[in-house]
Amino acid sequence: MSLPPDYSAPADLLTGRNILITGAGDGIGRALAIACAEHGATTLLLGRTTAKLESVYDEIVDAGHPEPGLLPIDLAQLDAARINEVIDAVDTHYGALHGLVHNAALLGDRVPLSHYDTDTWHRLMQVNVNAVFLLTQALLPALERGNDASLIFTSSGVGQKPRAFWGAYAVSKYALEGFATLLADELENTSWTRSNIVNPGATRTSMRARAYPNEDPATLKTTSAVVPLFLYLLGPDSQGIHGQRFDA
Ligand code: NDP
Questions:
Q1: What does the pLDDT read at residue 117?
Q2: Which domains does the chain carry?
Q3: In a mutational test of the pocket of ligand 1, which residue from 28, 56, 122 has the highest number of ligand atoms less than 8 Å from its CB?
């Protein structure tokens, strides 16, 4: 599926909504966090580099948008104590979540499986898959309290068709899509929480530059170009859309 043609997010689309975005300090996550705040949301910025999160925070606050919350967490180190901190922060300060965007990911190595570094493999699976499961499980109660909350899983072209030399990244995105599809099926008749997959496609970020070092970034769409699809899925305009996969 794709964004309805000519869709334009209303200025107040996300007013009163609390939206947690992982990997909010850079790339697509950064652009999305700022756009969500511009459309009225209170954002919860999760990422591993505090200075990057603070820079997003400053940009949002300086523009007069709702003050974001900061969750400086390395998803590679996500354990029960850190998860409880996230649950406490959400429950105490926000009460309910209306959106959760799983965006953070590691790229890892572009080598044949026979040469793939095993530590890198485990770290990727932890960040790209296990942390997604742990955060989703922990935050489902807060999402349920949000009524019509929206979960977005950020995948990739290799999430449907793994290709040679994409290693753990491709396998992790394949697993992510499996997780999202299974969850959507479980929530289908029991919950108002919606779950959808987004493949951003080639986008001008540092991850893309690492994956394709010889590519001219100027030939790629910017992060702002993928934001409208995420906004659409996070807001009430997409009410009832559930268990779908979108290409940006
Ligand atoms: P970037 O590398 O630019 O940004 C990824 C963000 O995730 C960064 O803020 C990074 O933090 C954060 N992150 C990485 N590891 C961790 C961790 N262990 N704990 C917490 N945060 C972490 O990537 P993109 O913006 O390009 O990618 C965003 C999503 O889109 C990813 O899921 C990616 O797979 C997907 N995607 C991107 C495409 C593209 O062309 N750009 C194409 C298809 C899919 P820090 O900045 O501190 O490193």
A1: 98
A2: 18-234 (3.40.50.720)
A3: 28
